Amino acid sequence: MAAAVKGSKPLLSVKGLTASAGDLEILKGIDLEVFPGEVHAIMGPNGSGKSTLANVLAGRPDYTVTGGQVLFEGQNILKLEPEIRARMGLFLAFQYPLELPGVRAWQFLKAGVDARRVHNHEEEMSAREFDQMLKAKVEQVQIDPDLVKRAVNEGFSGGEKKRNEILQMAVLEPKLALLDETDSGLDIDALRIVADGVNLLRSPENAVVLVTHYQRILDYITPNHVHVLFDGRIVQSGGPELAHELEEKGYDWIKDAVDVGV
Amino acid sequence: MTSAPAKYAHYFADFQSLVQGPGAGAPNWLKDLRDTGWSRFNETGFPTARRGNERWKYTNVGTIAKTDFGLAGGPTPANSSKALAPSYRMEGPSVFDLVYIDGRYSPDLSSPAAPSNGITAASLASIASDSKFSLEGQIGRYAPPDDDGFAALNTAFLYDGAYIHVADGHSEKVLVRLSYTTTDGTGPKITHPRTMIVAGQNTDITVVESYSGPKDNVYFTNAVTEISVGAGAHVDHYRLLLEGEKAFHVGTNRVNQERDSSFSSASFALGTALARNDLEVLLDGPGAYCSLNGLYLTADNQHIDNLISIDHAQPHCTSRLNYKGILDGRSRAVFGGTVLVRRDAQKSDAEQTDKNLVLSKQAEVDSKPSLLIYADDVKCSHGATAGHIDADTLFYLRSRGLDLDAASRMLVQAFASEIVDKVQLEPLREYLGALFSAAIPNKSLPVAEAR
After folding, report:
1. Which letter does DSSP use for residue A219 in this model?
2. Looking at residue A2, what is its pLDDT?
3. Which of B51, B295, B363, B377 could form a disulfide with B327 if both were Cys (CB 3.0 to 4.6 A apart)?
């Protein structure tokens, strides 16, 4: 497990974040600090707001932020378009990756890489350089090379789509990766491949926020911190042992604890 | 045929000049056919969107009827250099180019097939009188003048066009490029291009038929194409509508397929104030297969009407109909697709879809796919969609760093690529890809409500 770099500044700092979808308030005040090198697991029952949190951080237009702030490397990103956040190094692995008929994976990924490079005042990558890089990443995350030749996610199985998200993450090399239930619906082999991919990309400089319903993936990715989200708030935080506790007791005890005002 | 209502007087004058002038040397069967065409047009005139006329329900051709189009004169040294034929490359031993300027064949710009070894690719006017081609009874067989006013008018003015014939069993692949170009000049011009393609048994023909003209002139192309696909033959037919922005185009296409033949068509349309693409395919032999594809991109006040009909007249035939439209501005697209499965056409397999991507709030789509099934053992499906770019998909692209414009563009291009990618000829595919890519408007697009 990569240890947090002591004394460094937080990569992500969320304070009092509230957000709604339409008239429905979903996030009711989230505080979260993520340092470089850390993996945070956000757990919670269905409807607790954990997916919303990941999507709000990535800038999904379906949600309205009603309060609080989100600093990414010290900069408030809440007013920034999702593409700007992506270019700054934020990545969201989708719970339901979309199929893009007619869009080749190559074209899609290169556009993303180039957008980030231009944002950082770098030259676009040459086709050849990109080819070599992509080939290396395909090997690294052990994805079927044929999938990269096809249209993005078109006709892919659920597991292939999730693996493709991990490939995209590997290619885009984000500073902060938000994984929105990337583990859901995966069999144990696919889960292991996804987890291996995440572990491979862990470094002292970047961080991962893993949104998950199940403890299962945490057998393969050891988090530094586990947070329990319930009704739009983080109601409990702890170390990896908290995930095991949830696994044993389920989420009901959290509900009970919240109900009695603990 | 000796008179005409006042509103068609100028057509009648042009008709008389043709039959007494350049068309006077035609064989009798052709003269008779023209007369039949004229009397038919004289009776019916241009179609109107009156009640009950389903074929013209959403398309008003009033502007065509009201404009005094004069018969274009044909190539001169001055206008030949203005030919706006598409500029993609086609090479090979059996590649032929037939170029038409203002409705007439231009020998200078063409490379016809030498009249030997089973291939004919020639100007209709030059061979109409030659009995060895036995055009009598062929021309007008699948597109008779009584189809509608436009086909009748084309037949009345039948003079030049293309005749492509590949004899039974000729195994070599044949490629023919037909370019019909209208040039600028004074007054609105009309041309009546006529194409006949006859693929003998077990032959393999590719024909690229393109129509183009000046950007700012009002003109009218009234084309008729007849295609006969012999048993076991394969015909790849591309139709490129690259007309000017003020042009009118009506294309009547009739295809007849025999046993185990296959016919693939791809129709690409850009520009054109008003375009009508009327395509009927008769699957007239067991085991026939057709794949009809289309891609249209409209803007401003443009109007495109695709009327496609497939007749499963025999058992064990398969048809695929896949049209896609990209609409911007206040443009309008009409799609009428009919798949008819006759009572004896068991084991028919038919799919039809029409999908439209709407890039503005004012554009409009009227899509009516329909199935008429009289056999009981068939597999048929149909569907039509029209909508804006999907919000979730757009967010997916943006979350990878693409801005709104780049993401929209990538999605529109991807939408078009499904049809462009079906083009088998690589230079043509690249040419069309670039053409459509350049035509995609650069702007932020309206987005569909998220799920």
Report:
1. G
2. 47
3. B363
Q: How many CB pairs under 8 A join A and B?
A: 81
- CA B450 to chain A, closest CA, distance in angstroms equals 7
The answer to whether the CB of B166 falls within 8 A of the CB of B202 is no
Question: Helix, strand or coil for residue A149?
Answer: helix
CB A199 within 8 A of CB A221: yes
Residue A166 half-sphere exposure toward CB, CA atoms < 13 A:
30
Can you tell me the distance from the alpha carbon of A241 to that of A163, in angstroms, rounded to the nearest whole number? 27
User: Helical H runs in A202-239?
Assistant: none
Q: What is the DSSP string of B231-291?
A: TT-EEEEEEEEE--TT-EEEEEEEEEE-TT-EEEEEEEEE--SEEEEEEEEEE-STT-EEE
| Total of domains in chain A | 1
Q: What is the mean pLDDT of residues B371-382?
A: 95
Residue A245: both structure tokens together: 């506790």
Answer left, alpha or beta for residue B312, where phi above 0 means left and psi between -120 and 50 means alpha. Answer: beta
Range of the domain at A238: 12-96+173-259
B346 in reach of chain A (CB within 8 A): no
CB of A74 within 8 Å of a chain B CB? The answer is no
Token output for A98 = 């979309």
* Distance of residue B413 Cα from the nearest chain A Cα, in angstroms: 8
Three-state SS string over A160-185 comes to: HHHHHHHHHHHHHCCCEEEEECCCCC
A119 touches chain B (CB under 8 A): yes
A133 touches chain B (CB under 8 A): no
> How would you write the pLDDT of chain A (262 residues) with one tens digit per residue?
445 555 689 999 999 999 999 999 999 999 999 999 999 999 998 899 999 999 999 999 999 999 999 999 999 999 999 999 999 999 999 999 999 999 998 999 999 999 999 999 999 999 999 999 999 999 988 888 999 999 999 999 988 999 999 999 999 999 999 999 988 888 888 888 889 888 988 999 999 999 998 888 898 999 999 999 999 999 999 999 998 888 888 888 777 777 665 4
Q: Which of B368, B375, B356 is nearest to B298 (CA)?
A: B356
CB contact under 8 Å between A151 and B414, yes or no, is yes
> Quick one: average pLDDT of B312-316?
98
Classify residue A225: in a domain, yes or no.
yes
Query: Contact A166/A158 with Cβ under 8 angstroms?
Result: no
B50 vs B222 pLDDT, higher one: B222
- The reply to whether A157 falls in a domain is no
Identify the CA nearest to B55 among candidates B245, B243, B278.
B278
Give the best residue of B385, B399, B415, B449 to mutate against chain A (max A CB count within 10 A): B399
For position B451, what pLDDT does the model report?
Answer: 45
In the DSSP assignment, the letter for residue B450 is P
Report if residue A159 sits inside a domain.
no
Please give the pLDDT value at position B1.
46
Query: Residue A102 and residue B395: Cβ atoms within 8 Å?
Result: no
| Rounded distance between C-alpha atoms, residue A245 and residue B32, angstroms | 94
Report yes or no on A109 lying in a domain.
no
Distance of CA A259 to the CA centre of its chain: 30
CATH of the domain at A246: 3.40.50.300
Other C-beta atoms lying within 10 Å of the C-beta of residue B28: 8
Give helix then strand counts, H and E, for chain A: 9, 12
d(CA A91, CA B112): 59
Q: To the nearest whole number, what is the mean pLDDT of chain B? A: 92
Question: Facing residues of B225 across strands?
Answer: B195, B253
Of A189, A181, A252, whose CA–CA distance to A213 is shortest?
A181
Domain ranges of chain B: 6-285
Q: Which pLDDT score is estimated for B88?
A: 77
